[in-house]
Amino acid sequence: MNENNILAAIGRIHRRGNKFIERELKKHNIHGIAPSHGDILFQLFAREDITMNQLSCSIDKDKSTITALVDKLVRFDYVKREQDPLDGRIHRLSLTPKGRELQPIFEEVSERLLDAVYAEFVPEEKQQLLALLEKIKL
Fold first, then answer.
1. Are 41 and 59 in contact, with CB atoms under 8 Å apart?
2. What's the 3-state SS for 5-46?
3. SS3 assignment, position 94
């Protein structure tokens, strides 16, 4: 194994993970959502509402990327965006009822993905892998 291929291996894992998610969402007849929407939805599953700035910080993506992803979720009626009543410059995001219905499906898909990723690992190896990956600083 060539240790210089670490970034290629991480990229391959990322692409395969995304394809897995896309297949699983298709099985659940969910359209219009890409794996890149997952971080946003998981933040909204955990909170009642969130500002665009808070979201950007929590998922480590720039605001222009977040805006494009949120626009699509709004268009598909999974998320609603409202101006903050106290500060019109701030937009708050929250799930619509249709968006809230995605939570159990996304949790199931996430669990299936993790099961597939860690299928050949013993618990100690999972912890070791995460600790090693956390050491990467870019």
1. no
2. HHHHHHHHHHHHHHHHHHHHHHHCCCCCCCHHHHHHHHHHHH
3. strand
pLDDT tens for 15-66 read: 999 999 999 999 999 988 999 999 999 999 999 889 999 999 999 898 889 9
Fill in the amino acid letter for 134. E
* Confidence grade of residue 1 (pLDDT, cut at 50, 70, 90): low
- DSSP class of 119: T
**Could you give the 3-state DSSP secondary structure of residue 136?**
coil
CA dihedral angle for residue 76, residue 82, residue 88, residue 92, rounded to 10 degrees: -90
Residue corresponding to tokens 């805006």: 67
Q: Which two tokens stand for residue 135?
A: 């050491």
Cα–Cα distances in angstroms (integers) from residue 68 to residues 53, 54, 71, 90, 128, in the given order: 14, 16, 5, 16, 36
